[in-house]
C-alpha cells in the first residue's frame, strides 16, 4: 500500500510539472503570434516603387519654360538668340530671301512637331477606338429613339470596356503639347527678331506674294503679314507630314499582320 501511494504521488507530481511547463510555453506562443507581420503588409512593403518617368519630367519642364517665356518676353528672346546660332546660318541666308526663310522655318517647325506627335500617338489604336465609339453612338441613338431601355443598359455596360481607350485618346495630344508649344515659341520669337532686326537693318521687309507684288512683312491685318505667310506655308505642309507618318504606321501594322498570317511552304516528302 505504501509503495502504491508513493508511486501515485510521484505520477501526480510529474503531471503537475508537465502542465506547469506547458503553460509558459503556451503563453510565449500567444505573445509571439501578434508580433508576426501580416502577409499583405509584408508584400506591400516588398513591392518596389516604379521609377520616375524622365520623359514626363522633361515635358513638365518644357511646359513651364514655355509658360515662363510667354509671361516674360526677355526669356523668349534669350531662347531665340541661342536658336539664332543654328537657324541663321542654316535658313537665314543673310536676309536675302525672307520668303524662303519663313517657308523653311515653317517646314522645320511642323516637321518636328508632327514627328513628336507621331511618337506619342498610336494611330492604329486611335482609329480602332474611333470606329468603336462611332458604332456605339449609332446603337445608342437607335435605342433611344426606339425606347429600348434594356439595350441602353447593355450599351452603358459595354461603354466601360472602351472608356479607358477613349480617355487615352483624349489625353494623347497633351503629351506632345509641351514640346510643340516650346518649339513654336522659340521659332516665332526668332522669326520676329529676324523680321524686326535683320530685315529691318537690310531694308528688305518687302516681299512679293501671289496676290500682291509689294507686301510689307510687319503690316498687320489680323496678324502681321509674316505670321499669315508662315501659316499659309506651314499648315498644309504639316498636314502632309502627318498623313505620311500615319501611312507609314498603318503600313507597318498591316505588314506585321500579313507576316503573322502567312503560311509557310508545305514540306514535301
Strand percentage = under 5%
Main sheet: strands, sense, barrel: 2 strands, antiparallel
Q: Summarize model confidence as the mean pLDDT.
A: 75
- Enumerate the spans where pLDDT stays under 50 for 5 or more consecutive residues: 1-10, 12-48, 260-269
Report the radius of gyration as a whole number of Å.
Answer: 37 Å
Please give the number of β-strands.
2
The overall number of domains is 1
Write the layout of secondary structure elements.
Elements: H1 2-32, H2 39-46, H3 54-71, H4 73-92, H5 98-120, H6 123-146, H7 149-202, E1 206-209, E2 212-216, H8 225-261
Antiparallel strand pairs: 1-2
Helix pairs in contact: 3-4, 3-7, 4-7, 5-7, 5-8, 6-7
Provide tags for this entry:
single chain; 269 residues; mainly alpha; two-stranded antiparallel ribbon; 2 strands; 80% helix; disordered N terminus; disordered C terminus
Short description:
This protein is mostly helical and 269 residues long.
Written description of the protein model:
- The chain is mostly helical and 269 residues long.
- It has one domain (56-248).
- 80% of the residues lie in helices and 3% in strands.
- It contains 8 helices and 2 strands.
- The protein has a two-stranded antiparallel ribbon.
- A hairpin with a 2-residue loop joins β1 (206-209) and β2.
- The N and C termini lie far apart (100 Å).
